[in-house]
Amino acid sequence: MIYSLKGTLIHRTPAYIVIECGGVGYKCTTSLMTIRSLPDVGKECMVYTHMVVREDAVELFGFSSNEERECFKMLTGVSGVGSKVGTALLSEFTPEQVAVCIASEDSKSLTKAAGVGNKLAQRIVLELKDKINKLNSSSGSSKLAGMSAGVPSLGNVKNAMDALSVLGYESSEIMPIISKFDSELKVEELIHLTLLELGKNKGA
After folding, report:
1. 36 plus 15 within the same structural domain
2. Considering the domain boundaries, does residue 132 fall inside one?
3. Nearest to 53 by CA among 90, 2, 113
4. Contact 39/3 with Cβ under 8 angstroms?
5. pTM score, two decimals?
């Protein structure tokens, strides 16, 4: 499995990029969000990757962040959501925005992405909302309650934690960070600030 690629960006289109590493050019299908974040052709860049193997093809997908890759894997795990739809969703939304839509059961917003109709959007929310509930129940409600002590309002904080759980983060690593922020902030802001702090901690 190819985890990531770091090399020279030698070609880019609205649908894919080519990164040369050690004399080999790797074609990666990407979202518009990722393409917009990359440097100019001829410069060095890095993408996280996910390989999809089918009977008739092997395709490599590139992402600007690990969160985007995990979000893609999460989305394509939903029945009826293929690689094309997963890429379309991440061309329209950031991983944080996808997570907020799921946590708030906002299926209507997801239909903004190409190829996502009402029924498919509702299925995405239903299947991934269930996943959040399972993650929360497995961690134990009493544990969650104890960790949330001292937080004045669990409204937006709870929604932000649910959304971050979808992206693969454990409540035990989220709460010490998210509890530092104003609980009256919007859910998306709480998610963004928490991800920034998690990134700093991993880089330390």
Report:
1. yes
2. no
3. 2
4. no
5. 0.71
